[in-house]
Amino acid sequence: MANARGKEIDNTHLSIDQAEERGFIHRDYIAHCLRWTHVSKYLHIQSRYKTAKIIDVGCGKDMPLARMLMTSRLAPEKYLGIEYNKMSVPSMFDNTKFKPDLISDTEFTSIKSLDDVYNYSVCFEVLEHVEPITAIAILQHLPKFLSNDAISWFSTPAFDEKVGAANNHVNEMTYEAFGSLLEEMGYKILNHWGTFASIKDYKDSLQSLSLNGVFDKLREYYDSNYLATIFAPLFPHQARNVLWETQYVGKLTNDERLFKKIDKIDGRLGSSEKWRDLAKCIECAQNYVKT
Predict the structure, then answer these.
(1) What pTM was computed for the model?
(2) Could you give the CA distance from residue 220 to residue 232 in angstroms, rounded to a whole number?
(3) Within a domain: residue 101?
(4) Cα(190)–Cα(139) distance, rounded to whole angstroms?
(5) DSSP assignment of 139-186, as one string?
(6) Are 166 and 7 in contact (CB under 8 A)?
(7) Fewer CB within 10 Å, N side or C side of the chain?
(8) Biggest CA pair distance of the chain
C-alpha cells in the first residue's frame, strides 16, 4: 500500500523556492529552518563545531544544514550528505574552504562502509517518506557509522488519525509510536521538542504554564502560521511535528525509557496500511549487533 501519490519511497522535499511561491513562508519551512538553527546552536554552545563530523541522511538538494553552518561560520570538520535524489554539491561551495562531501542517488541502507566515523547525525523529515520496515532499517543501519558518544537528531510528523497524513508522506507515525520505536532500536532520548503545532491542540495547555497572556500578546502581531512554531517546543506530545535529540546506546534499561514498549501501545501506530510492521522493530533490535 503506497501513499496518495502511489509511492512507497517518496522523494519530494521542501525548498525555499517552493516556500516563496506561496507568497509567504509556511510553518513547515519555518520549522525546517529552526531545526537547522537548533543543530548549529548546539554545536556553537558546546564549542564542538570545529571537531564535528556530521552525517546528514536525506540532506536535501539544497544542502540547507551545510549552508547554514557555513554562513554562520560554524563549518564542521567534516560533513557528509546522503541523498536519495540525484544531485550535486551546490555551487555556493565552489569557492569556499568548507567542502561538504556527498553521496547521492543512493538508498542509505545500501551503503556498506564509509571512510570515517561520525560524532553527529541528522535525519530530518525523512522517515515519514518510507514504509515502516524501511524506517526501521535506516535506524538500524545508522549506528554502523557513528562513534559511541555520537548525538543523533531526528524529526518527523506526528500522525493524528483524525487529521490524516500529508499526501506525499508514506508513513507518518504517532508521537508515542515514534518515541517507542527510537527506544526499541537502541536510541536513548535525551530531549525532544515540538517543531510546529496547531494552536487548537495546545491552547488549553497554556493556562497550566501561565502563558495565556503571553500568547494573547504575541497573537496581536503574529499570525497562526508563526505562532504554530513559537509554542510547539513546550508541547511535543501535542505537536504536529517533533524533533528528537538522541544517543545510540544499543539497549535501554527500563529506567531509561520514556515510552511504553511498542507492542503495548494501543491503537494505530502510523498512517501506512503496513503500520503493524513497526512491531517488527522489537525483533530487529534484539537481533542487531553493532559492527
Answers:
(1) 0.91
(2) 18
(3) no
(4) 16
(5) HHHGGGGEEEEEEEEEEEEB--TTT---TT-S--B-HHHHHHHHHHTT
(6) no
(7) C
(8) 55
Model pLDDT, residue 77: 94
76-134 tens-digit pLDDT: 999 999 999 999 999 999 988 999 999 999 999 999 999 999 999 999 999 999 999 99
- Of 46, 113, 47, 102, which is closest to residue 79 (Cα–Cα)? 102
Whole-number CA gyration radius for the chain: 19
Q: Give strand pairing partners of 134.
A: none
Count of domains forming the chain = 1
Tell whether 10 is covered by a domain. no
Determine contact, residues 270/131, Cβ cutoff 8 Å: no
| CATH number, residue 154 | 3.40.50
Cell (9 digits) for 19: 516556500
Rounded CA separation 196/35 (Å): 11
- Classified as helix, coil or strand, 242 is strand
H/E stretch holding 110 reads none
Q: Cβ(153)–Cβ(124) under 8 Å?
A: yes
Place of cell 525483533: 283
In a domain, 124, yes or no: yes
Task: List the grid coordinates of 149.
Answer: 558518544
Give the structural domain span for 114.
Answer: 16-58+108-287
